[in-house]
Amino acid sequence: MLGILGRPGEPMLVRSGRGTIASMTAPVELSALAVNVVIPEDLRWRDTRRHEEFELQSLTVRMLPDGTLAAKAYGRPVAGGRGAYVSFPVPDRPELTALISAAADEAARRWAGHA
User: Fold this and answer.
1) Where in the chain are the domains?
2) Most buried of the four, 25, 54, 76, 102, by CB within 10 Å?
3) What is the C-alpha to C-alpha distance for residues 64 and 35, in angstroms, rounded to an integer?
4) Which pLDDT score is estimated for 3?
5) Is pLDDT of 25 > 80?
6) Strand pairing of 19-24 and 33-38?
7) Is 110 left (phi over 0), alpha (psi -120 to 50) or beta?
8) What is the pLDDT of residue 10?
9) Are 12 and 81 in contact (CB under 8 A)?
10) Inter-CA distances, 37 with 12, 48, 58, Å
């Protein structure tokens, strides 16, 4: 288990169960923050890729460096099996926009409370 110790403006120590791994004094550059979200059954939809129909069951929501959100949908082939890991665009539907926003708010709440 990893633990991060330090206060804003102070060097951070990253520790595992075996001792200190690293001390960081330089700012950390984040390229994106991501969260995976289950799409409730009543909001799921189907789309086709490579002649195969998929039911979209999850979203990957990323916060980009400029603070905007980007989302892609993932799912399973309707015919069964694993299928390919292929992303799909998220339709512009108010209920999906609300789900993405709620997921970002919940992720922010959890990140803010990490120890």
Assistant:
1) 1-29, 31-112
2) 54
3) 12
4) 47
5) no
6) unpaired
7) alpha
8) 58
9) no
10) 30, 21, 5
